[in-house]
Amino acid sequence: MTARKPLVLLTNDDGYFSPGIEALEASLGKFAETWIVAPDRERSGNSLSLTLRRPLRVQKIRTRVYAADGTPADCVYLALKTILPRRPDLLLSGMNLGSNLGQQDISYSGTVAAAIQGTYLDIPSAAFSLVPDGRRGFDPEAAAGFAARIARRLLSRKPRRGLTLNINIPPPPLRGVRITSLGINKYDPEIIPKKDPRGDLYYWIGSGSPRMSGGTSSDVRAVKEGFISITPLHTDLTDYAALERPDTAGLRKCFRDAG
Fold first, then answer.
1. How far is the C-alpha of 233 from the C-alpha of 238, rounded, in Å?
2. What is this structure's pTM?
3. In this structure, what CATH number is given to the domain that contains residue 231?
4. pLDDT for 130-176, tens place per residue?
5. β-sheet bridge partners, residue 129
6. Gyration radius from the chain CA atoms
């Protein structure tokens, strides 16, 4: 009897039609049964938001490819509860057309959030992002080969519970792989006012260009030096060291005094 292929759920925040997710589908299809459940349009910056105040609609695009008019996190829920024939063995989010580096990016990113949503549901999950090359643009096909190797690894050896991998792939030539910590990226708030045809004011939130920094072990430094960055993220955001620090103890005393 032929062994059943592992089922891999693919999603993103760029839309089901993105060349990044299509490259993943083609590369993983050689050894896995891939299903795409992704937004029907770009949903960048949605983080872990869920659509709670309106119904969601899902359209079948082709065999094992579905588009939903919701967020990346919505897509993961929809896939598990209504679309997939069985529970996925792995969830991969991306490959995002743009980097997700540093502390702020991973907080805003729909790409990273979709992978974290999978981790919350006890599915081994990873997010992939492509760092742009100003001269040649993106090369999803080359990066998908590396993603497939990571997928095989995660299928054969599941990561520790609560762990999500955030992977950023710079343009070639690649110098290797580094396991990294999160760097720092700071955005200057940018609000762009405009007027509609009736003269009423409206606003665009501009993304701006972040100032990035990080030490030798950071994702920012690794990518800058031509290395693939793999950053382990944990869903437990508790700062355990702070639980015993004097300033935290002072806060506890403050609440006791207030009571």
1. 12
2. 0.90
3. 3.40.1210.10
4. 998 766 667 898 899 999 999 999 999 988 999 999 999 998 889 99
5. 96, 168
6. 20
